[in-house]
Each structure stands twice: as structure tokens, then as C-alpha cells.
Amino acid sequence: MGKATIVSKNNGFSEPNLPRIKSVQYEYDSVKLGGGKKQTIHTVQNHFRINVFFGIIDTVMMCMKSKFKENYLSLLNSMNNVLFNKNPTNQSIGEVCNAYKIESNDLSSEIKILNRLFINHECDTIIKKINYIRSKDIQTGFPNYTNILKIFLTIPKNTAFNERSFSALRTLKTYLRVTMSQELLSSSAILYIQKEYPIDFDNIIDKFDAEASIRGRRLTLK
Q1: Distances (CA, A) of 178 to 95, 173, 175
Q2: What residue stretches are annotated with the HAT C-terminal dimerisation domain (predicted)?
Q3: What span, in angstroms and rounded, lies between the C-alpha atoms of 71 and 66?
Q4: How would residue 173 be classed by pLDDT, with cut points 50, 70 and 90?
Q5: What is the pLDDT of residues 24-45, one digit of tens each?
Q6: What is the distance between the alpha carbons of residues 27 and 201, in angstroms, rounded to a whole number?
Q7: How far apart are the first and last CA of the chain?
Q8: Which of 10, 21, 24, 136 could serve as 36's disulfide partner, Cβ 3.0–4.6 Å?
Q9: What's the pLDDT tens digit per position in 61-104?
Q10: Distance CA 209, CA 175 (A)
Q11: How far is the C-alpha of 99 from the C-alpha of 152, rounded, in Å?
């Protein structure tokens, strides 16, 4: 416990010590019997190992088991197989189709056609595949593959982004803004959450000014 004592002194908090032993009242047939005591933990190290360390480990393991369930991992691996392999297995295609209510034959046909196009245009990474689909504007021709790709790209790797969204909501939706519309709230939340990304305000003003005639606005921004 020497290291723990040094760390506690350097950080300005009290040293670890054993909690005070409390008496326990036992009841038997509605008759209280006193004099009992809790089980004594002889050292500070054993106290923190049993009551703190083991408790933290149990909590972490339970959270990991609930977060990474076997069925979720299997579905994620199947999506990875469908999107990244040139010849995905029928089992992976079937699992993805069952999860998202898609016809397996339609998805298989789209994968075969797209894989030929990807090979011809050397689209060997997910970014190149996305850029190719967007540049050729073929999303409507391959709706199932596009939907699976969108779902796969929007799966968060952790819950930090979701928690950040709720924190932003508490900041934006104040008492004076209760009448804010859903569209304005969503747009404001995106700007607040993604505030680290640079914004070209001149380009935004130019686009806003270019649409003046469409909206019937008489005042132009020059």
C-alpha cells in the first residue's frame, strides 16, 4: 500500500484505510439479538481488493457482455463479409437479409453486379466504393446494397457520440426555446456537436444569396 499512500498524498486526498466496523442486529422470530459484527477484513489492501476492485471488474464485465452480445457480433461480421468480400457467403447474406427484412436474391444480384464494377474501376476500399456509387449516382439502382452500406457506416463504435448528443440537447433546448421546431433543433444540434469542423461562411452566404429570387426575397446580399 506504499504506492497508494504516495499517490493519495500527491493528489491531495485522504489515504486509504479500513472502514469502521459496524454492529449488526440479527433478528430471530421477531426478537432482536445484538452483539453481532460484520466479517472483519484485516488489511486495507484486502478491503479495496474485495469491495472496490472486484466490484469494478464485475461491472465492467457485465457492461461488456451486454454491449458485445454474440448475435450483434455475428451480424456485424456478416455485414463486413457482405460489403468487403468479393464473394460473400450465402450465410452472411441470409443473416443480413433476415435482420433488415431484405430479399436475399435481390441483394445477391446487386452484390455481384457492383463487385464487377468495383473490380473494373479498382475500388478496393470502402471509401472508393462510396465515392464511385455517389459519382455515378447509382444509389437508386442498388437500393438494398446502399441501405446496408448506410447502416454499416452509421453504427457507432461507442456511446460517446450519443451521450454528447443528449448533452447538446440540454444546452440547446432551454426554457426560452421550447417552441423551437424539430428541424431547427436538429440543425442546431449538428452545428453544436460538429463544431470542430471548419465552416466556410462565405460559401454559405453566397448560396443563400443565390436563392433570393427563388424564395422571392427582394434584398440581395452584396
Answers
A1: 43, 6, 6
A2: 139-196
A3: 11
A4: confident
A5: 555 554 445 455 555 555 676 7
A6: 73
A7: 71
A8: 24
A9: 887 776 666 567 788 888 889 988 888 999 999 999 998 889 99
A10: 33
A11: 13
Report pLDDT for 144: 92
Q: Which residues contact 36 (CB under 8 A, 6 or more apart)?
A: 23, 24, 25, 26
Q: What is the distance between the alpha carbons of residues 62 and 38, in angstroms, rounded to a whole number?
A: 28
pLDDT at 180 over 80: yes
- Residue 28 belongs to what H/E stretch? strand 23-28
Residue 147: name the closest of 186, 110, 120 by CA.
110
Q: Residue 111's pLDDT is what?
A: 92
Between CA 187 and CA 128 the distance in angstroms is 28
Backbone angles phi, psi at 37, to 5 degrees: -135, 150
- What share of the chain has pLDDT > 70, as a percent? 71
Orientation of helix 104-120 relative to helix 90-100, angle to 10°: 120
Amino acid symbol at 207:
K
**β partners of residue 33:** 26
Integer Cα distance of 169 and 193 in angstroms: 10
pLDDT in tens, 148-157: 998 888 877 6
The DSSP code for 53 is I
Beta strands in 13-144 (DSSP E): 23-28, 31-37
